[in-house]
TrEMBL record:
GO terms for molecular function: mRNA binding; translation initiation factor activity. The keyword Signal does not apply. Residues 62-89 form a coiled coil. InterPro entries: EIF3A. The keyword Coiled coil applies. It comes from Gossypium barbadense. It comes from the Eukaryota. One of its GO terms (cellular component) is eukaryotic translation initiation factor 3 complex, eIF3e. One of its GO terms (biological process) is translation reinitiation. This is Uncharacterized protein. Keywords: Coiled coil.
Length: 164
């Protein structure tokens, strides 16, 4: 019986040792893969005395990823700040140029508006002169027509009376 208990204990120890070895091998593979994916070699060295387990490696990988993200975010913020400064400087340099272009465009539009107004006045004057000529012509025609009508009107009334 004692022999069976010792045998069971040795078996359990052997199984635990095999599991630890398998976890160690998996941790080594995971460690190699994470080192491949790291862009920079700022990895904290793992001491030989430190026990390598999946959990510790995962925790280290997560903390390194978090640090990397934070560093990238800081770099991005710095670049964004620099870009904002550059854009502001560019706007400040461009402001007088924009103002000059605006004033030039305003002057061009003013000249164009005055020219269009002059053309409009000239066109209106031409229409008015044409309308006056037509009015005078129609007035003369009306006088001639009225004179003829007056004579015809008498004849038309006689024709009506004669027919009755």
């Amino acid at each position: 019986m004692r022999l069976a208990a010792v045998f069971e204990q040795q078996r359990a120890e052997r199984i635990c040792k095999e599991i630890e070895e398998q976890e160690f091998e998996e941790a080594q593979v995971f460690l190699q893969e994470t080192e491949k994916h790291l862009k920079r070699g700022k990895r904290k060295p793992i001491l030989d005395g430190e026990k390598l387990t999946k959990q510790t490696l995962l925790e280290q990988a997560m903390s390194e990823q978090l640090k990397e993200r934070q560093e990238q975010e800081k770099r991005l913020q710095k670049v964004a700040k620099t870009m904002n400064h550059m854009e502001r400087a560019k706007r400040e340099e461009a402001a007088p140029l924009i103002e000059a272009a605006f004033q030039r465009r305003l002057l061009e539009e003013k000249v164009l508006h005055e020219r269009e107004q002059q053309l409009e006045v000239e066109l209106s004057r031409q229409h008015h002169d044409g309308d006056l000529k037509e009015k005078n012509s129609l007035a003369r025609m009306l006088e001639n027509y009225s004179g003829l009508e007056a004579g015809k009107g008498y004849q038309v009334q006689e024709n009506i009376l004669c027919e009755v």
